[in-house]
Write a structure and sequence with these properties.
47% helix; alpha/beta; 11 strands; three-stranded parallel beta sheet; single chain; globular
């Protein structure tokens, strides 16, 4: 049996034992991976990590029937997950601080008017969109009513990336950095982190958590990943990633592993400009792909791309987000991933300094992305994709491929998906 496959099976067993012990209120009596592994070896726990186990089965003919009812505009809308501010054309910002200083805390008439013409598949909330429990409940309820029936998304990793837990108006358990969890070498702790976070996200009406980070933080000079990653050792990180995913799932939240093909060996921050890795694919196979393979074999529904260049793999500086070699040849082809590919936020400097919103949206879809997250100028990006289909640059069947995956996820969550 391959080492990676064995690790995943062991991690699944660790998760199952953690769940069992939690149910018996004995979970905290287990502190070492070795003890959990021994239980698994004795055959006390069996669990499945297949795609079929991860999502509720949705009949293909049901998806096709819904797809046939949708207009092209409705289908394209499902491929955009945007920040709330993108739906209000009166909002103007240059840097993230502008959004913090003038926070959008409600769904206003400008948003509703634009959304009537521009449906969206998802809305991502940031810290400045969240004030307290009553306000969050109201904004979530109002977002649910928007055209496209958007899913609610958030970055709630634990550690420094925690939109809700870092807000003093919320009384939730604060989860520390994943790097600290990785140091315990106990995947049950990663399960606990995912389950705690998932539980309060479900309470507040969130659907998708853009977590966990599956990067392997091998570069000490990395300024963007750091302790967001579980470890600099893929053999440690892989079981942590799947355990965290299982914790989210058991709490009712869809997780997303990121940032493919791996942001851990970079120096620059793609929020502000170009970053790259000098690794070859063979080198990545021995490191970064260990964690991503683990997540894929577990059955993760979403993988987020990195805006990093991979010149020793693609022969160019094109960001992975816009590279068919990375997304189609490597992720879908070699790794066999069949679920949703979502871009990292397209408003980040690594994209906006090189491409317009139109070029980035069309280019990422051509490369193989299913969801365009956070384009800098949403309506421009939406219109560009519509035009690309109408002119034959992107086929409608290519759009359908992505929308099928998206509808399957939405229906598997809460029977949603009708537009």
């Amino acid at each position: 049996m391959e080492t990676t496959t064995l690790m995943i099976l062991m991690a699944c067993g660790v998760v199952a034992v953690a769940v069992m012990m939690k149910a018996l209120k004995l979970r905290h009596s287990i502190h070492h991976t070795a003890m959990l592994s021994a239980l698994l070896a004795m055959g006390l726990v069996l669990t499945s990590c297949s795609d079929d186990d991860e999502t509720t089965s949705v009949p293909a003919d049901e998806i096709e029937a819904q797809l046939q009812k949708m207009t092209l505009r409705e289908k394209v809308g499902q491929m955009f997950y945007v920040r709330l501010e993108s739906l209000d054309t009166t909002m103007h910002w240059n840097v993230y601080a502008d959004l913090q200083q003038n926070p959008m805390l409600q769904v206003n008439s400008n948003i509703r008017d634009l959304n009537a013409k521009y449906p969206v598949g998802g809305i991502i909330l940031y810290a400045w969109n969240i004030k307290d429990e009553p306000q969050l409940a109201t904004i979530v309820a109002d977002i649910r009513k928007l055209n496209g029936k958007p899913l609610l998304c958030i970055d709630e990793e634990g550690g420094r990336i925690a939109r809700i837990a870092k807000n003093s108006n919320f009384n939730v358990e604060v989860i520390g950095p994943m790097g600290d969890i990785g140091k315990t070498n106990d995947p049950a702790n990663a399960y606990h982190a995912g389950n705690v976070i998932g539980s309060y996200l479900t309470k507040y009406g969130i659907d998708i958590d853009f977590a966990p980070v599956a990067d392997v933080n091998t570069n000490p000079e990395n300024i963007v990943i750091g302790d967001r990653a579980f470890s600099d050792d893929p053999q440690v990180a892989a079981p942590m990633v799947v355990s965290y995913l299982q914790g989210l799932k058991d709490a009712g939240i869809t997780g997303c592993i990121k940032h493919f093909p791996g942001h851990g060996d970079t120096k620059a921050d793609t929020h502000y400009g170009y970053a790259s890795t000098q690794k070859t694919w063979a080198e990545m196979q021995q490191c970064e792909m260990v964690t991503f393979r683990a997540g894929i074999q577990w059955g993760c529904e979403l993988i987020m791309t990195a805006h990093i260049g991979t010149p020793k793999i693609t022969g160019s500086d094109v960001p992975a987000t816009m590279s068919p070699i990375i997304l189609q040849d490597k992720l879908r082809g070699e790794l066999g991933y069949q679920n949703i590919i979502i871009t990292d936020a397209m408003e980040m400097g690594a994209i906006t300094q090189q491409y317009s919103s139109s070029e980035a949206a069309v280019g990422s879809i051509q490369a193989g992305a299913d969801i365009v997250l956070g384009p800098r100028y949403f309506t421009e990006a939406f219109d560009a994709v519509m035009k690309a289909v109408e002119q034959g640059t992107i086929s409608e069947e290519r759009i359908n491929q992505s929308v099928r995956r998206i509808l399957k996820m939405k229906k598997s969550r809460r029977g949603e998906g009708e537009n």
